[in-house]
Amino acid sequence: MRDQIIKFSDGERFPILLDDDSQPLFIPNLYLLSMCRGKSDAFNTIRKKARAIMHLYAWGLANDIDIEFRFQKLQLLNIEEIESLHNFSRLCYKDVLKFKNTPIKSIFENNKKNNLIKLKTNKNNFVSTESYINTMRYIRYYLFWLADYNSVFIRDNVDKYNAYVTKKNEMLSYMMARVRSFKNKSSISYKDAFNQDVQNDIIEAINPESINNPWSIKFIKERNQIYILMSLSTGLRRGEMLKIQVQDFDPLAKTISLKRRPDDKYDTRDYEPNVKTLERVLKIEEYPCYLLVQYIKKRRKLSKSKYHPYLFVNRKGDPLSYNSAGKIYLTLRDKNSNFPENLTQHLVRHTLNFRMSELMKSLSLSETEMNNYLKEIMGWSKNSKMPERYNQTFIRNEANSISLLLQREIFNSGNINE
């Protein structure tokens, strides 16, 4: 099983699940179309749900369990199977894709107690707790629908239907209780912002003339310099950066307009980047503005750049892909061992948020004002709780500072025996 992105004539992208013969799977794709696309889920959300279903079916294959046949026979998952499914759902997506071509014993081991397959935890890469929880949540949504989809055949038999509903609710409740239990025991680990020295080192390393610059092609050096400088100074998401069009940049006003353009039929990329939430206009400083003007002049000389409006391109002029943009930071940190191992565009965004919080605190702004300004710059809705989530590092540092002040008061009070 694998997923594939199809593109409709109006530009809409939609992920579908295919079997090993590259034929669409009827039941999973019916769910994605009716319950996800039909409810106007975003493309990224539908794709995550599709991959969660792929996890479910891959688990069934590993355990000789035909998910659809079982549910057609109104035989739901028991507790032992749910536990095994939880274990499997921690596996990375790339390993789920390739496991069927790998000897089963090299990835899995038999649990003799219930004959289910368990992962060898020392042999595999695992996703984050948050990703695992989301995968299980999306699997639960699908199983809820699949159970209801098959219950239509017994709805005339009230006793049989009620007994089935009770079993279904027990299965789904246990799945969520298992997730909640795991989530409550593990707080989400927010990535710490890097300090000013690291930021200065990054700016030095991306200079096209720097010996620490990891790229060899002149155009790529210049493109990556402005790309990273814009990330550092604006905190834009990867999708937002890749969706910027040349016309969105106003060199006279020194602004960049971020506009929502979902299902853009002119965007040839299979994985279409997007402005995630709010449209907005950001001011940019004179130096990155100058570099952008120079970059655009060179971009226009690339043969394929004339066929699309997107600002960031590869060396041939095609729109820069989502994966290629992610590799910019991967290449940079591989060349410079002193950079954080988790240096990504998301970490850069987190760092800008932290810097802004520090600056606004020094300006004696209220918490409400700080949150409102962060929502505007970072592109969050007015009701968003993201400022509180992103500011965990800032809050932690502030709390430690207050704690130290209190400790100094205690130890300087003269009540401590020398």
State the share of residues found in helices, binned by percent: 40-55%
| Domain module count | 2
- CA radius of gyration is 26 Å
Query: Which class do the helix and strand fractions yield?
Result: mainly alpha
Residue windows where pLDDT falls under 50 for at least 5 positions: 101-108, 183-190
CATH architecture of the largest domain: Orthogonal Bundle
Strand order of the largest sheet: 5-6-7
State the fourth-level CATH superfamily of the largest domain: Intergrase catalytic core
In one word, what is the shape? globular
What is the number of strand segments? 7
Report the order of strands and helices. EEHHHHHHEEHHHHHEEEHHHHHH
Distance between the termini: 71 Å
Main sheet overview: 3 strands, antiparallel
DSSP helical segment count: 17
Which fold name corresponds to the CATH topology of the largest domain?
A: hpI Integrase, Chain A
Task: Summarize this entry quickly.
This protein has 418 residues and is mainly alpha-helical.
Task: Describe, in plain words, how this protein is organized in 3D.
It contains 17 helices and seven strands. It has about 425 residues and is mainly alpha-helical. The chain folds into two domains: about 180 residues, no CATH class; about 230 residues, Intergrase catalytic core (hpI Integrase, Chain A). The strands form three sheets. The protein has a three-stranded antiparallel β-sheet with strand order 5-6-7, with no helix packed on it. Strands 1-2 form a two-stranded antiparallel sheet. It has a two-stranded antiparallel ribbon with strand order 3-4. β1 and β2 form a beta hairpin. α1 runs antiparallel to α2, α7 packs antiparallel against α8 and α10 runs antiparallel to α12. The N and C termini lie far apart (about 70 Å).
